[in-house]
């Protein structure tokens, strides 16, 4: 499993040719899957490769089946506000963990803020949903104070 931030800067390769470097990862609206990746081609601009053309997300490169379409990146999918089921603010969703084979997102990364991150680290969240406003609701177990 890889986090979306670790893909930034990886080379995009098609049939042995270097097309550019990953500049952004676009997630579905419900944050449960990767929609595609944007990559920078230098003077040729920015291109978008959809999920169906992503062949392999590796440790050192992203292999693709097509050259993609010229496109400017949309607004970033992350960070997003994280809420508890009762509506209180828990922090921000700062990253997504991607299953390289299925391109599904089984977990998100929750930051409680600078001090919380420093003292306790960031939390991985597996059970979540997204509201119409784009906020992420963290589903907690009974009796838990924090996910």
Write a structural description:
The protein has 147 residues and is mainly beta. The chain has two domains: 2-70, PRC-barrel domain (SH3 type barrels), CATH 2.30.30; 80-138, SH3 type barrels. 5% of the residues lie in helices and 45% in strands. It is built from one helix and 14 strands, in the order βββββββββββαβββ. The protein has one helix spanning 114-120; strands at 2-3, 11-14, 17-27, 34-40, 46-50, 54-57, 62-64, 69-70, 80-83, 89-98, 107-111, 123-125, 128-130, 136-138. It starts with a strand and ends in a 9-residue tail after the last strand.
List the keywords:
147 residues, mainly beta, SH3 type barrels, 2 domains, seven-stranded mixed sheet, 1 helix, 14 strands, disordered C terminus
Count up the helices. Answer: 1
Named CATH architecture of the largest domain: Roll
Q: How many domains comprise the coordinates? A: 2
Q: Could you estimate the helical fraction of the residues in percent?
A: under 10%
- Content-based structural category: mainly beta
Q: Which CATH class of the largest domain applies here?
A: Mainly Beta
Radius of gyration, Cα only, in angstroms?
Answer: 17 Å
User: Mean of residue pLDDT?
Assistant: 89
Largest sheet: 7 strands, mixed
Strand fraction equals 35-45%
- Terminal CA distance: 21 Å
**CATH superfamily descriptor of the largest domain:** PRC-barrel domain
CATH topology heading of the largest domain = SH3 type barrels
SS elements, strand count: 14
Helix-strand pattern = EEEEEEEEEEEHEEE
In terms of per-residue confidence, which ranges show pLDDT below 50 for 5 or more consecutive residues? Answer: 142-147
The outline comes out as elongated
């Amino acid at each position: 499993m890889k986090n979306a931030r670790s893909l930034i800067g990886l080379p995009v390769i098609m049939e042995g040719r270097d097309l550019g470097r990953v500049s952004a990862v676009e997630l579905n609206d419900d944050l449960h899957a990767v929609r595609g990746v944007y990559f920078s081609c230098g003077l040729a601009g920015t291109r978008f490769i959809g999920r169906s053309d992503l062949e392999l997300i590796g440790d050192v490169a992203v292999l693709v089946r097509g050259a993609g379409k010229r496109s400017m990146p949309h607004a970033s999918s992350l960070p997003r506000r994280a809420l508890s089921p009762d509506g209180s603010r828990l922090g921000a969703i700062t990253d997504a963990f991607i299953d390289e084979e299925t391109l599904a997102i089984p977990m998100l990364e929750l930051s409680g803020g600078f001090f919380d991150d420093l003292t306790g680290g960031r939390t991985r969240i597996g059970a979540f949903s997204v509201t119409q406003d784009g906020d992420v609701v963290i589903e907690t177990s009974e009796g838990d104070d924090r996910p």
